[in-house]
Specification:
Length: 315
């Protein structure tokens, strides 16, 4: 499965690993687990992650991440959890400076890139693929790597609740527990702890909620000024969509947040009957049937009306 990738790794020394911008637990867990693994092979390896939510700072290796790729040329880029190379947390120039690129991803809709690709949308997460990749390279998984992979799988499966969770996912997680994954701490830090400002953001999300189609669609927009006034940064302002989706009868939940760069980021969740990846793609984004997103190109009020119309057609 990873034979060609192994050949590329064998020939590479200077290696960078990256994932999509605004990294989630899966992007962080998968990149750092491979980082620790390749260090064991004696590679000169770095993870490029210019910004991340500080809820992840407890994870091993997060402090080792670098902001950019300073080398003019390097042997290999390993890209994880990013269906499109333009969404990677590196610049186009940094991408082009790689002699080889390995792409490992689990998104359904994808613009494949790189010299070696492993894309499997039946896998729960990039971290599940990273586990298989590390195993194929015959690298021993230690406690830190197990904790990282566990964090990635746990977050992308909604604590093993989403339908991307397979029996293989559970078998892999069982292995990770045997390797010493700190499951209780990961759960405590990522599922069970929020800042007070985040609690206020939840209140604001509910306050700003608009309801359409007899409760089948819920929409909440929080302008950047409101997010800023709560003292929340871009990375910490996400994660509100599930609250909207969890309301009885909701088919499509939409949370839109203003970002510091002036754009509005749309985050959608589906109850299961509407494939929202199609909607996101039609607006220039992407994702999965039940979790998808995009960045608004027009003003929020215009984009909102367009979206309401499209959702109405799909319901
Ligand atoms: P989010 O709502 O931000 O958690 O995103 C849910 C999923 O939608 C992610 O896992 C991505 O697969 C996808 N996604 C979000 N934003 C974009 C985008 N701008 N372009 C492509 N895919 C996106
Ligand atoms: Mn991700
Ligand atoms: Mn993922």
């Amino acid at each position: 499965m990873f034979k060609e990738a192994k050949k590329i790794i064998d020939k590479s020394n200077k290696i960078y690993i990256s994932a999509h911008v605004n990294p989630d637990g899966d992007a962080i867990g998968s990149t750092l687990a491979i980082y620790f693994g390749l260090k064991k092979l004696g590679k000169n390896v770095h993870v490029v992650m210019p910004s991340y939510s500080n809820v992840f700072s407890f994870l091993p290796g997060v402090g080792d991440c670098v902001n950019s790729i300073e080398d003019e040329e390097y042997d290999l880029l390993i890209a994880l959890d990013s269906s499109d190379n333009t969404r990677l947390a590196i610049s186009e120039e940094e991408y082009n400076n790689a002699r080889k690129v390995i792409m490992l991803d689990h998104h359904q809709i994808s613009n494949p890139y790189g010299d070696f690709r492993y894309i499997d949308d039946s896998k729960s997460s990039a971290s599940e693929i990273a586990y298989l990749f590390i195993k194929a390279l015959k690298i021993e998984i230690d406690k830190d790597m197990a904790t990282l992979l566990y964090a990635g799988i746990m977050t992308d499966t909604g604590s093993f609740n989403y339908n991307n969770t397979s029996s293989d996912t559970h078998r892999i997680v069982a292995d990770l527990i045997d390797y010493g994954a700190e499951t209780v701490n990961v759960c405590k830090r990522l599922n069970d702890t929020i800042k007070e400002a985040k609690l206020k953001l939840i209140a604001k999300t509910i306050d700003n909620m608009e309801v359409f189609y007899n409760g089948k669609m819920r929409y909440s927009f929080i302008p950047y000024e409101e997010i800023k006034s709560l003292g929340i940064d871009d990375e910490d302002a996400e994660g509100m969509t599930n609250y909207l989706r969890s309301v009885e009868g909701t088919e499509v939940a939409v949370y839109v947040r203003g970002k510091s760069d002036g754009t509005n980021k749309v985050s959608m969740r589906s109850g299961g009957n509407v494939d929202i990846s199609k909607i996101a793609i039609s607006f220039g984004g992407g994702g999965h049937p039940r979790a998808a997103g995009y960045t608004m190109k027009d003003s929020e009020d215009i984009e909102k009306q367009k979206l309401i119309k499209v959702v109405g057609e799909m319901l």
